[in-house]
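Record type: ASSEMBLY
Status: queued
Input:
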Amino acid sequence: MIRLILSRLAQIAVTAAILSFCAFMLIALMPGDPIDLAIAGDPRLTAEDAARLRALHGLDQPLMARYLAWAGAVLEGRFGHSRLFAQPVAALLGPALVSSLELLGLALSLAVALGVGLGALAAMKPATAPFVQGVALLAQAVPSFWLGILLIILFAVQLGWLPAGGEGGWRFLVLPVVTLCFANLAAYARHAAAALSTAMAEPHIRTARAQGAGERRIIWRHALPNAGVPLLTIAALDAGALVSGALITETIFARPGMGKLIYDAVMGNDFNLALLALLVVAVVTMLATLAADLAQRWLDPRIA
Amino acid sequence: MRAGLALLGLLLLAALAAPLAGAALGHDPFLPDLFSRFEPPSASHPLGTDELGRDLLLRLLHGARVSLTVGLLAALAATLIGTFIGLMAAWRGGVWDAVLMRLADGLLALPALPLLVILAALDPAMIGLPRGEASADILRIAVLLAAFGWVGVARLVRATALSVLARDFVRAARAMGVSERRVLIRHVLPELAAPIAIATALAVGGAVLAESVLSFLGLGIAPPAPSWGNMLANAQELVFQAPLAAIWPGLAILLTVLGCNLVADGVARRQGFSTRGQ
Amino acid sequence: MIRIVVALLCLALPVLAQGNNPARDTLNIGITQYPSTLHPNIDSMVAKSFTLGFTRRPVTAYDANWQLICLLCETLPTLENGLAMRETTPEGRPGLRVTWRLREGLRWGDGTPITTEDLRFTYDAGRDGATGMGPAEFFRSAYEFIAEDARSFTLRFDRVTFQFASLGDFAPLPAHLERARWEIEPRSYRTRTLYDTEPTNPGLWNGPYRVTQVQAGSAITLERNPHWSGPAPAFRRIVIRTVESTPALEAQLLAGQVDMVAGELGLPVEQVSALIRRTGQRFRAEYRPGLIYEHLDLNLDVPALSDRRVRQALLLALDRGQIVARLFEGRQTLAHTSVNTLDWPHDPNVRQYGHDPARAAALLAEAGWMPGADGIRRNAQGQRLAIELLTTAGNRSREAVQQVIQAQWRQIGVEARIRNEPPRVLFGETLPRRRFQGAALFAWVSAPESVPRGSLHSDEIPRAERNWSGQNYTGFRNAEMDALLEALPQELDRERRRVLWHRLQAIYAEELPSLPLWFRQDAHLWPAWLDGVRPTGHLNPSSLWVEEWRVR
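Status: finished
Output:
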């Protein structure tokens, strides 16, 4: 077990290193460096200013040298300065990570809970299956940038019950969480239904049923715990995609979270911030995947 | 299943009929007309006009061509790549498996959208595509979506292929000296057909939606070519001025997703297993 | 079960609903951009100058009537009042010596008096290239700083320009807080400046407000500065919120989370006029014509566009009046050249191009472009008259204009292929490297009477040897224009300058290096109860006069 964990951790470290290099090259591939942008924004910048600023920001170095310098600094724990926000990168990531974890954690839990609920509902009462399918379909087909603005118009503008955006207490979280949750709901409802029907075919369920246990009891006590394990893995694997999805939600609801931060950093050519933020998300996701794998092995010893 | 296929067929037919409808109505869906912006539905404009006075019905039909092409291309490409990589990982095992699956994990772990945005911003001329052509736009977006979309298929194929490879009839075939290529093509692939078909069907809807998200970020299909995605993204911007503009492209996307789901469910039911989780 | 959920929701919802009681001591302002830094001299962006307008005052600024005025100084230096004098530089060139005197009683937010030492620090830091301040042109030209006493300072310039009285971004920085930090290591000063590491330090600010809270990426909170010596502003607190999506910003306004939307970085005019129509008396809008010049830059190295007749035909084919009337409800000021019609150097008799497709077609035929079978014109070699048409991707109003332009050009037989790029690529690569094969639709923002040297002088054509600096993206070369652009800044006499300006506009309108479209209007959106905001329409934002803002 320990060996397995260590080997997987080593794999994660190697993957992270490769990913950081690929991400660096990708961002560098995008045309236009920060100084070009500054020149376009300010007619008073002259040729000398451009050369001076490039040298100052280290942009006159070859790409590989810049990457190695960055990687070396990160390994020493110096994460550098964000050019875009004029803050140390570490100081920016903290609050963004907290904001994202709040939003993503709640949305993911809600999506899993609702998904499992809907899946179970469909499994228990076949009559409700079309309704469940309809909800899943809607959740799958409505883009979150559209749902978000509709929710804002209804609950913030028309009814005035909830704030339209920004950060603050829990009231500010309701709409973005619902938006993001809805976007991921369909997947979990599907996964839950699949996992449930697999679990329902297991021998011990048949035993339970033969012993006369009620259908409801079978689902809640026997099938769901079994179905929960694969759902956990799926949820962990989804973390990265969820951060992507959060970009839209965060833009509409004006919340400065990880998705928005990465997007802004990439578009603003802010290497230090973009790379570290991407890496943090990737590593967290891979660690979550590993944790889910381990949990699965622990819960279900049949998996070798 | 039949209903799903019928629905998708109808959408395809509508896409093909776009020029005919254009001829029948006598409008050009690409030509702005500043004097008839935001017109309500009428005999000459059955669904009304958009913010530049163009016929909404015609744009919707032309949008179907773009969106369905993007969806189908992206889904097929993702399936091809994913099947190949998943199969390789399962068949070769060992280091190959570890490397390919870590690659997949890594890609899955990266937030794809910000990276898609970089790729979408690249000059198409750099990779030899013509600039300013809707067809190049379609290809570009399909390639981008496939580049990140294959991971799910690969994981699914790998898992299924592993179980198939361990089955008795494969072992028997191998013991009888059947070549590895033949084993993979004649014995393993057919077993994978159903899950792959389901994954493809579901990916079509996903790709149509992903294109709309890219459009929202300003990097989807460039104007004046319509796609359901950029129509919807435009409607979002105009939500206060023309709240109903989103209904038609939204409905079209909904129908596509519905059709794909019905097909996927149909395949699953026909094969007698539940792969809804994929 | 569903019934229970519905019942629970019904119970919970009234709890969610909190009345937003308008206690009018806080003003929430929505803008669409977040400032990247709060340091006055590093990077320039509108969000920053808007925010700093509340918290910091420059020595001089242009007011709402586009006149230069003193904010921190007592009188504007002129040759007549003797505060400015012609002299000869040590190198023997004509130069200027200009003196400003700070008003009495100016203090930083921590009570420290503002003195010429603070200006000397700005000067030292700006002149040192390692500091990483943006444009150093000013500091190169001002070769000597002399502190006459605690309140008077003199700058010596190595050239004569008519704008000598304007100090622009040259404003005091708090030497008592920043000088030591800068002196440790100028190279890394920009990562250690208190403006970004401790922006809530009151000593950094000298405006009516000071920064009290910063939420990176979303909001900046300002509160009254107790050491402000001018009239007290009306609001105890101002919160500047960044909402990048314009529908979301409108929603926040309607929901009452944001009281006003600043026109400098606000909603498009057509969105605002629609909003006013729907909401009646709740908001007021003011549309201020500004110095934002929307135009089409043409790449003159594209063979077809190098012909002046083709460029004129392209402009004649556009029905700009109709575009403005239909898409923007008439709320843009048509442009004839890059000189704003409201700016005094504007020549009302400059050549104007109406909508005249027939004349456009004749010009194209004259230039050798004959109608082809597919409706697109061809020249004698059989080449099609097809160009690219670029703009910033994701800017819906520009994309709408672009599609109309494409259609109107199509009618005279010119094909425009649309290719849009995100701002970062367009402004960071395509335009400066001149990699556009046709026309690019974007805007220049300028100050009143600013000489368009960067975009029209042949020395300013971006080239690799010049580090791609310069904004003459069109590649325009005209010897007379070059001479005018060099003579204009040095001509101190306004009437003689007017003659030069008129000649400049005449050449521009004849040669059309760029096709003028219109000057954008900013839509300022205020609640009905807010009074006294005066939009300026140029780079000095309305927030510089926040002490005049009042609750009605």
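Annotation: Chain C touches chain B at residues 246-247, 250, 270-271, 274-275, 278, 322-323, 326-327, 388, 393-396, 399-400, 402-404, 406-407, 410, 417-422, 424-425, 430, 435 (CB under 8 Å).
Annotation: Chain C has 17 helices and 21 strands.
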